[in-house]
Amino acid sequence: MHKILVTGGLGFIGSHTVVELQNEGYEVVIIDNLSNSSKDVLKGITKITGKTPLFVELDLKDKHLVQDFFKTHQDIKGVIHFAASKAVGESVGNPLLYYENNINTLVYVLQELNKLDTANFIFSSSCTVYGQADELPITENAPVKPAESPYGNTKQIGEEIIKDSCKVSQNLKAIALRYFNPIGAHESAHIGELPIGVPLNLVPFITQTAVGLREQLSVFGDDYPTTDGTCVRDYIHVVDLAKAHVIALKRLLDQKNESNFEVFNLGTGTGSSVLEAIKSFEKVSGEQLNYKIAPRREGDVVAAFADTEKANTVLGWKSELTLDDAMRSAWKWEKKIRNK
Ligand code: UD1
After folding, report:
1. Which residues of the chain have pLDDT under 70?
2. What pLDDT was estimated at residue 340?
3. What is the pLDDT of residue 196?
4. Locate the NAD(P)-binding domain: which residues (predicted)?
5. Is the pTM of the predicted complex or chain greater than 0.85?
6. Which numeric CATH code is attached to 202-233+269-337?
7. Is the dihedral of CA 234, 245, 259, 311 positive or negative?
C-alpha cells in the first residue's frame, strides 16, 4: 500500500487523520517536532488501529533535515501537511515566528516534492481565508479577504505558494482543504485535542470548565446580529474531517482531480451559535456549564458556515457526525485525560 507522509501527525487533526489512513491500509510516516504535541499520541493511534506508524522527530524549519528525510523516503506517494502554528493572538505578537514556522517549512517540503516523479499534496487551510464573508453559506468562490492576522495570512500565502508551484510543476498536484471549526475527539477517547495552557478555542474551554480546570467560560459577545446574539460557526467533528483528508488524497492518487490545484470547504453546512454549542454540551454531558456573557473578542467574525455542495458532489465527502456527537466525544476525552 502507498506510503504517506503526515507532517504534524501527532497533533489534533493530524493524529485523527493518521488513524483513518491506517484504517484504510495506508503506510504512514509521521514527522512532528513535538512543539504542540506529545509522543504519547502514538500509543493512542496504536490502540485504535493496532499499528504503530513510523515516527520521525524532525523540525521542518531545518531545510537540510527535510532534504535528508526525503532522500531516505523516496517512495513517499503523498503528503498531508498539517505541521504549522495556529494561535491567532500569538501570531499577532510574533509574526516572523509564524512566517518561519508556516511558510519556510511549506517551501522546503514542496522543494523536495518537486524532485519526485509524482507528488500528491494535501494542505491544511482554513475558512479564516474568507474573513467575514458577504454571503452565507460560504462557497469556495467567495473572495479571499485581507487576512486579520499573520496566522490567517500564512494560510492565504500558503495556498498561493502551492497554486504557483502547481502551475509550473510537471509532477505536483495539490488540494487545499479549508476547515471550518474542527472539534471533538475519537470515540474511543484514545486520541483528542490537547491544548497547552489556557485553551483559546471554544470547545476545549467548555470541557475544561466542566471538568473543573477553569472557573467559568466567557461567551464573547451576545449582541451580534444573529438569532440569539452570539457568534455562529460551523463545528465539524474531527473524525469526519480526518476522513475527508483520506478521500482527498485518494482523489489525487487515482488522478480524479480536475485541475492540479483544487480547493474544498470542509464543514457541516450548519451554523451553530455559541449558546447552541453550550446547550449541546449540557445535553450530552448532563453537566451544567458555568458561563457568563463577556465583551466581544477582537477579530471575531459574526457568522461563518460552509456551503458543502462542492465537497459533497465533487470530492464525494459529507460530514456524518453531529454537534452532539462531537460534544459527547470531546467530553469523554476530557474526562479520560483528567482521570474523572
Ligand atoms: C479560531 C481562529 C481561526 C482559526 C481557528 C483554529 C480567531 C478569531 N479565529 O476560529 O482563525 O482558524 O480558531 O482553531 O481566533 N468563544 C467564546 N468563548 C471562548 C472561546 C470562544 O465565546 O472562550 C466563541 C468565539 O467568540 C467564537 C466561537 O466561540 O464565536 C468559536 O471560537 P474559536 O473556537 O476560538 O474558533 P474561531 O474563532 O471560529
Report:
1. none
2. 86
3. 86
4. 5-328
5. yes
6. 3.90.25.10
7. negative
